[in-house]
Design brief:
The complex is a heterotrimer of chains A (139), B (463) and C (395).
Chain A (H helix, E strand, L loop, with lengths): L18 H9 L22 H5 L7 E5 L2 E5 L5 H7 L6 E2 L6 E2 L12 E4 L2 E5 L10 E3 L2
Parallel strand pairs in A: 1-7
Antiparallel strand pairs in A: 1-2, 3-4, 5-6, 5-7
Chain B lengths: L3 E6 L3 H12 L4 E5 L28 H9 L5 E4 L1 E8 L5 E7 L4 E12 L3 E3 L12 E3 H11 L6 E7 L3 H10 L3 E7 L7 H5 L2 H16 L4 E3 L1 E7 L6 E7 L5 E10 L2 E6 L1 E3 L2 H5 L4 E3 L5 E3 L12 E3 L8 H21 L10 H20 L15 E3 L4 E2 H9 L5 H8 L12 H7 L15 E2 H6 L10
Parallel strand pairs in B: 1-2, 1-6, 2-3, 6-19, 8-15, 9-10, 9-15, 10-11
Antiparallel strand pairs in B: 4-5, 5-6, 7-16, 12-13, 13-14, 17-18, 20-21
Chain C lengths: L3 E4 L3 H12 L4 E4 L15 E2 L8 H23 L4 E2 L3 E5 L2 H15 L6 E4 L3 H4 L9 E5 L3 E3 L1 H11 L3 E4 L4 E7 L2 E7 L2 E4 L2 E4 L5 H7 L7 E10 L11 E2 L2 E2 L4 E4 L1 H7 L6 E8 L5 E7 L10 H14 L7 E12 L6 E4 L6 E5 L5 H17 L24
The chains are: A alpha+beta (139), B alpha/beta (463), C alpha+beta (395).
The structure holds flavin-adenine dinucleotide (2 copies) and FE2/S2 (inorganic) cluster.
The site of one flavin-adenine dinucleotide has 37 residues of chain B, from helix 1, strand 2, strand 4, strand 7 and helix 3.
Chain lengths: 139, 463, 395
Amino acid sequence: MDSVNGVNSVTGAEGTDHADHADRADRTGRVDGAVSGNVDKGGGMSGASPYRLVGARPEPGFEVRVDGRAVPVVPGQTVGAALHAAGIRTWRTTRFGDRRRGLFCGIGVCFDCLVTVNGVENLRACLTEARPGDEVTTS
Amino acid sequence: MTAYDLVIVGAGPAGLAAAGVAARAGLRVAVLDAGARIGGQYFRQLPDGFNAARPGALHHGFSTFVRLREALGGADVLLGHRVWAVEHGPEGGFAVHCLEGREERARTVAAARLLIATGAYDRVLPFPGWDLPGVMTAGAAQALLKGNLVLAGRRVVVAGTGPFLLPVATSLAEAGAKVAGVFEAGGRFGLAPRALARPGKAAEALAYGYRLARRRVPYKGGRAVVAAHGDGELTHVTVAKVDADWRPYRGGYETIECDTLAVGYGFVPQLDLPAQLGCEIAGDADGGPVARVDRRMRTSVEGVYAAGETTGVGGADLAALEGVIAGRAVVADALGAPAAGDPEDPRMEARRRRLAGFARALLRAYPVRDGWMSWLRDDTLICRCEEVPYGRIKEVRDLGAADARSIKLLARPGMGWCQGRICGHAVARLAGEDPAPPRRPIAQPVRLGDLAAMDGRTLDDDT
Amino acid sequence: MPDVVVIGAGMVGAACAYYAAREGLTVTLVDRGSVAGGTTGSGEGNVLVSDKEPGPELDLAMLSCRLWTELASEAREVGGFEYEPKGGLVVAENDEVLRALTELAGHQGGSGVVARPVAADELADHEPHLAPGFAGGILYPQDAQVQPMLAAARLVRRWPGVTLRTGTEVTGILMEGGRVTGVRTATGDIPAGAVVNAGGTWGGEIAALAGVELPILPRRGFILVTEPLTGGPSGGPFVASGPLVRHKVYTAAYVTNVASDSEGLETSAVVEATQAGTVLIGASRERVGFDRTVSLPVLARLARQAVALFPALADVRAIRAYCGFRPYCPDHLPVIGADPRVPGLYHACGHEGAGIGLAPVTGLLVAQLITGAEPELDPEPFSPGRFAGAAAWTA
Ligand SMILES: Cc1cc2nc3c(=O)[nH]c(=O)nc-3n(C[C@H](O)[C@H](O)[C@H](O)COP(=O)(O)OP(=O)(O)OC[C@H]3O[C@@H](n4cnc5c(N)ncnc54)[C@H](O)[C@@H]3O)c2cc1C
Ligand SMILES: Cc1cc2nc3c(=O)[nH]c(=O)nc-3n(C[C@H](O)[C@H](O)[C@H](O)COP(=O)(O)OP(=O)(O)OC[C@H]3O[C@@H](n4cnc5c(N)ncnc54)[C@H](O)[C@@H]3O)c2cc1C
Ligand code: FES
């Protein structure tokens, strides 16, 4: 799955800006770029990125497992944001038409983003802050 | 269980401002919010984990937030508390029923007075393909960025109507997204002369315009995204040139590649809680329901106040001002003296009138026109939850469903997970009505086990 | 000029229009709101024989049950509605209740009700997720479930002889020489040979327009709806090990509550799954006038009873609750038939918590009475004449 934004920077995405951070990430045992698209590719113009905009120096992150796949998280991010950052934009299909769903309202209103976390069904991914060790399953 | 003098639901600018005022006057105050951090929608904060050196870069008027935060004083801030119901307490006052955290721990907070500052959510309109992943609300794009430092997409189209599109497009562009275009269904800078008469706001709009132009983001009025396409996920949208009623001109279509569409047609105030208590709900300038309040932000139900977007969509400045007024009013009503300042202070009132007048002018300048109905195809979903296509709505209209409620009863739009929050406006308009006040006795899903545990218990047994 | 004006496009009015048209009459069906916008849109769709004591209402229910089956099979060709003969399971908390329940079932058998005793250790075969500890139960295979709103709307369209006028409030009953000659509406008079009052909970107000009293009062009921559960093959709510709820399941206390005269709150949850994947938990009964204020204590009570029946529901979330107002008469019988006080006026209202189930038979009887055909069942117990002793109001 190709990331369309790839801004989660667990692996030291800010490149030269944050070499220290990259070191930290490596020390936590993760391989740089292990998760496709989970590096800050900068994006649009002049290497602008959300991280650069606010001068973020994120703490070492952690991973959650989403249907068995590792997804990096910066502490405090929601499950939905982490998935989105990892290029995963669909994680549920609907009951009747098997339609694909991901984030829509982003603030807990639409219930499009439902996931199962550690066996608890129907949690809103956009509201649920990810925790180390979370097992996320989708339907 | 001892009651708080004031419980505030919503830690946005309105709720925070009120909390500060009331707490400083010595009242016992609790601010509840579903979110993990204070700030609400406008001042949505990054998690500490990012160690942002310039958190204000994502916010216009960040200093206001800092002031609000610092003024909170001794107010208890209860985060991660989703309020699913409010009711009158057995001996006066109110019981505020919450679900705390991911575990959804049931908890009831008692309040002598209640301020409802629950804000609003994006108003959206259906169009073919709007349920493809990659299509999201403009507010969602903001929330991803402000609260998670995640860019909604690499190549983004921003569309809809209203002044909110500008900051959304600007932040996306400045955070590194390629914004392929901003499409305002109303006229270009529909801001209208009336609106521009407020110098601060005009300057703000111009500043956004300038920042967008600098990044070569095209901004076009009279254009709407009338369809989204993609095989499973969004790959491109159809943008149509639309007339004053938002009907596409023949041949005026273009296709734009994008992985993300951020779309919003204004906001819908979050009124579930005041409606539960029977507060009077009135129609705003755009016909949408809002909590009716007096000059002191008191609703029609004694002891219940409302401030911010719940009283009408007007932006963060107005919300904060209303919060101050509400805080002062609560203090005056609770202590019998205006210890926190006169809630009817003429200068504040004048400012509120000005800001509210401006907000109403904006609502009138950016109306949602019914021409969007011409974008629909029979298989376009109107209700995303129950997957009700437009064709089905037409069918039950033919069967005699003459109003929005009957359409809902016969075809099920609004019966699902979101309880009509997303499709409610569209269904009402399809029935030719203004959206009705919400009737949601259960504002957030609550486990039957927790509900069952309330049986036969009085408020005093709690906590 | 239509032969008949039916006032009220709820389930009962729709059935009256349907059967009258089937008898060859032309019908104008008027409602001040939409089709199915009254109590029909705020109740449930249980078609029950299990909850009725032997007597006239059970006879009515048995016939209606058969008519529902016919209507549903017809429906396949002409645009359907959900109708599911899923059966009801009534469970008893203890041996004493089970004895009473078994006795009732025995009596009901005389009216044609099929009732199969289920021993305690067989309950799980029928409802695998039922809580343990019940003394036993009775399975009623004739109990069924219908989606009443759609059913009402579809029935109205089934015969060309029916004209539906929504958004048309009846403000007066036209009379000439003491006989009903039509109705007055906000948008003009509609002359007709006969007028049927199918105004449900508002049937008393319509009767008053004709100068007669009909004691119909509201009895409020709340219903809880859960989140949709993972869809199984039939689309119903599933948990890992199969459908969570298969029948309509309720405790024997329900039967006593239905018949109760108490003003106070009574609840005895009826739990059932819907095709939309949700679980419906209904319904409370209390007399509080037309008060729509949500009562959390009532919802809490319903939830507790539902969880007591199906412990797995404790972790299922409620997402919605709504209420409606059942139209009840003091003697708990519906009012069906010609009003002896006002020739030309027929009543079809006051069905309390059984208006969906009893709608077809009501429509059939009213149509037969209007055309002078031999009624399929003796309507006397339901006659409006039973209130004729009450002082007639002057119009
Ligand atoms: C997603 C989104 C993003 C927005 N972003 C911007 C922006 O970037 N710029 C801009 O100018 N305007 C933005 N707005 C508009 C915004 O509504 C106002 O500018 C401003 O935030 C309103 O302030 P408020 O205090 O009335 O409510 P809000 O700031 O909306 O605060 C309301 C708070 O109430 C909480 N809440 C609601 N219901 C419950 C409940 N049942 N239980 C517990 N807590 C609850 C919410 O979590 C929220 O924190 C946005 C709106 C939305 C919906
Ligand atoms: C919570 C609850 C659960 C229930 N569960 C069941 C169940 O499981 N099974 C069952 O069989 N029954 C059930 N019922 C009862 C059932 O819903 C009612 O008995 C039935 O809907 C009555 O139908 P009706 O057509 O008589 O009335 P309604 O559906 O109320 O129709 C009456 C119509 O008359 C119209 N009207 C009134 N006055 C005027 C006027 N002046 N001019 C024009 N139009 C007028 C109204 O607008 C309305 O549409 C339940 C009820 C409730 C509240
Ligand atoms: S995205 Fe709408 S609820 Fe999560």
